[in-house]
């Protein structure tokens, strides 16, 4: 998938970090930071390869013109596309944002947490988008490469964007439904607790009225019952 295709996937798949942020009651500033991180993360595996050109190396185009040869400091789809590395970074950023204590020691720390999660999530989306074409991506450092050999890198980008959109939307709905079920369970529990306390309070009022009535008839026996 080319760069524009990867940018399209960031828009189509950002429902997951948004849903996670809402269900975890994160501030909207942090959710927005995760979305911005996702927009860069979908090209991060390519960007960290550090592309450059040299004046000494050129190639001739079909029309006879010459252009500079573009190279990368790191091999394309090498360690920058390592599945295990990005999964570990995603797990670490998820723990830091959603599980670790959300201490507001500085104003930018929560934003940094959100942005880092968005970047690592976007990188995983990038790897999924690269998976169908013929040039594989490494599962772990110096490990085997995996690919589906379905089409070339620049082919069927709209189809891949659609598939990623369907998959991430389904995941977002699943996350949201789980949160809704938990919320409903909490509401049902609270309802039972309120009814139980109301019953105890009403019984307390009845007992208090009986005690007061008994005291009146003890000290003022002529009162009608």
UniProtKB/TrEMBL annotation:
Keywords: Membrane, Transmembrane, Transmembrane helix. The chain crosses the membrane at residues 83-104, 110-129, 158-180. It comes from the Bacteria. This is Membrane-bound metal-dependent hydrolase. It comes from Vibrio porteresiae DSM 19223.
């Amino acid at each position: 998938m080319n760069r524009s295709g990867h940018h399209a996937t960031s828009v189509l798949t950002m429902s997951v970090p948004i849903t996670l942020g809402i269900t975890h009651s994160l501030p909207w500033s942090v959710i927005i930071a995760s979305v911005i991180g996702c927009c860069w993360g979908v090209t991060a595996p390519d960007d960290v390869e550090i592309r450059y050109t040299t004046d000494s190396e050129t190639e001739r185009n079909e029309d006879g013109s010459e252009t500079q040869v573009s190279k990368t400091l790191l091999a394309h789809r090498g360690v920058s596309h390592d599945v295990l590395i990005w999964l570990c970074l995603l797990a670490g950023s998820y723990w830091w944002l959603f599980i670790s204590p959300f201490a507001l020691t500085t104003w930018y720390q929560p934003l940094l947490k959100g942005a880092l999660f968005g970047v690592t999530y976007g990188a995983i989306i990038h790897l999924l988008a690269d998976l169908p074409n013929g040039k594989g991506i490494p599962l772990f450092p110096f490990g085997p490469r995996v690919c589906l050999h379905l089409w070339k890198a620049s082919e069927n980008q709209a189809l891949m964007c659609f598939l990623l959109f369907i998959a991430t939307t389904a995941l977002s709905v699943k996350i949201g439904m789980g949160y809704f079920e938990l919320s409903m369970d909490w509401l049902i529990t609270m309802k039972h607790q309120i009814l139980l306390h109301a019953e105890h309070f009403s019984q307390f009022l009845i007992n208090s009225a009986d005690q007061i009535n008994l005291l009146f008839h003890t000290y003022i026996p002529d009162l009608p019952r």
